[in-house]
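USER:
Before I trust my own judgement here, I would like a peer's view. Write it directly below this note and I will take it from there.

ASSISTANT:
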Amino acid sequence: MKFLVEFNPTVEAKNEFEKSPELQKKVMEALERMKPLAGWFTLRRGFFIFEANSVEELTRKTAVFFFIFKTDPVISPAISMEEFGKVVGYLGEEAKRY
């Protein structure tokens, strides 16, 4: 399953990251393990799309955000345009139950 991960590090964590080649190396290693399908950055936030097939894999891929960037990432399922129609149909069926 694909996930969108959004993170917004604290100013202190961002400044420490920018000054520390050691932290930069650790983040690059984490990104290699994460194998993001895509990534975007603004001045303060980062966004990644990646795949995970288990809770263990999801935890391992998002640990960098907790420990280096000292932030709780927002993790959301990422649905492709092809899957979106199915999801809307499932939601319509579920809505009838309520």
The longest helix spans residues 81-96. The mean pLDDT is 91. The beta strands are 2-7, 38-41, 46-51, 74-77. The chain has one domain: 2-96.
